[in-house]
């Protein structure tokens, strides 16, 4: 089989690899049919993750198989697998999880203790598991990991359910349950911020301000009902919830400075560079700040349920639909959310 391999800054290529084989009766082999680039893939392709900085424990030095968002078709399953069968379309979560350790049972699926810490597809952290821009992929615990895609959802629109779409649901949905009508600030550069705008409005946010220098992104956010700005100054006590997805500490500082008392900031940015936060301001306001990779498997079903409701339209974030064979040339290009398809996706 082939796996798309990150080999240098802005450069990927097909490389041959052995076909994956079942290694236990709990496993499955899947074939991605609609795969897309995660916002972190853009940082990897730009070379940010390979820069040597003392505060970064992991350096993602090439070559390695890339990609961790896809809908796939099940090709083969072990005898103990009961939740999916060959031919099913499934969402493949970005992180590896067994489903039975204490962390998995607590919903901390990105911290499964059956594998090295942060084991994932698409990056050599926690071992080498391959990438979801590959012809075939082995899933170690099929029943725990794979989520069947409902028949009424489009695989192209839901290619990001492995991470960015489901993460975006988690960034806002629980907070809007606790604070109906909350005012939401979104400071972003990619698909996560746009998904957040769509979900926040659908779930009853009273006001959504989207900050992004890209005019095309702002136009999409306006279509979701958000106010937009190319850049912004902190709005004192202006928002109950802020979502930062830029990877820039100065933009994270903007977000936390804009929070109302006891406000919450969710940071989904990948911060490869150091910076300073306004800790005294945060202390005086009573800010809650969460910076974390997502335990996505725990809430993929709820995120898919929202997509099925008709109240949101994630397909509008898809910037281009391209053929699978275009991956080496097209993936390094600047796209918001390209989806690469093969077969009958």
UniProtKB/TrEMBL annotation:
GO terms, molecular function: metal ion binding
Q: Where is the Alcohol dehydrogenase-like C-terminal domain?
A: 192-306
Signal sequence extent = none
One Pfam family recorded for the sequence: ADH_zinc_N
Show the Gene3D superfamilies listed in the entry.
Answer: Medium-chain alcohol dehydrogenases, catalytic domain (3.90.180.10), NAD(P)-binding Rossmann-like Domain (3.40.50.720)
State the needed cofactors, names only. Answer: Zn(2+)
Question: The Alcohol dehydrogenase-like N-terminal domain covers which part of the protein?
Answer: 25-148
Q: Which InterPro entries would you find in this protein's record?
A: ADH-like_C, ADH-like_N, GroES-like_sf, NAD(P)-bd_dom_sf
Arranged from A to Z, the UniProt key words for this protein are: Metal-binding, Zinc
Q: Which residues form a coiled coil?
A: none
Query: How is this protein named in the record?
Result: Dehydrogenase
Species this protein is from: Streptomyces diastatochromogenes
Q: What is the lineage of its organism?
A: Bacteria, Bacillati, Actinomycetota, Actinomycetes, Kitasatosporales
């Amino acid at each position: 089989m082939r796996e798309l391999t990150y080999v240098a800054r802005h450069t990927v290529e097909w490389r041959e690899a052995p076909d994956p084989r079942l290694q236990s009766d709990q496993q499955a082999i899947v074939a991605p049919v609609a795969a897309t680039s995660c916002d972190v893939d853009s940082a990897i392709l730009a070379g940010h993750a390979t820069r040597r900085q003392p505060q970064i424990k992991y350096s993602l030095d090439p070559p390695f198989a890339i990609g961790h968002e896809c809908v796939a078709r099940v090709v083969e399953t072990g005898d103990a697998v009961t939740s999916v069968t060959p031919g099913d379309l499934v969402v493949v979560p970005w992180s590896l999880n067994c489903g039975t350790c204490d962390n998995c049972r607590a919903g901390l699926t990105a911290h499964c203790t059956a594998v090295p810490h942060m084991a994932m597809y698409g990056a050599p952290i926690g071992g080498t598991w391959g990438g979801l821009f590959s012809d075939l992929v082995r899933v170690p615990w099929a029943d725990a990991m794979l989520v069947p895609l409902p028949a009424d959802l489009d695989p192209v629109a839901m290619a990001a359910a492995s991470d960015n779409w489901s993460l975006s649901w988690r960034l806002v949905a629980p907070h809007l349950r606790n604070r109906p009508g909350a005012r939401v600030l979104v400071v972003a550069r990619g698909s996560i911020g746009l998904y957040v705008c769509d979900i926040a409005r659908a779930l009853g946010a009273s006001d959504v301000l989207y900050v992004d220098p890209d005019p095309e992104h702002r136009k999409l956010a306006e279509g979701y009902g958000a106010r937009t700005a190319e850049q912004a100054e902190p709005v004192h006590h202006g928002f109950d919830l802020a979502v930062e997805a830029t990877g820039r500490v100065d933009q994270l500082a903007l977000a936390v400075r804009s929070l109302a008392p006891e406000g919450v900031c969710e940071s989904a940015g990948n911060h490869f560079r150091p910076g300073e936060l306004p800790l005294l301001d945060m202390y005086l306001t009573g800010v809650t700040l969460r910076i974390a990779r997502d335990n996505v498997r725990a809430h993929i079903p709820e995120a898919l349920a929202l997509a099925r409701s008709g109240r949101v339209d994630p397909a509008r974030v898809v910037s281009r639909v391209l053929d699978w064979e275009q991956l080496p040339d097209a993936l390094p290009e600047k796209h918001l959310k390209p989806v690469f398809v093969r077969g009958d996706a």
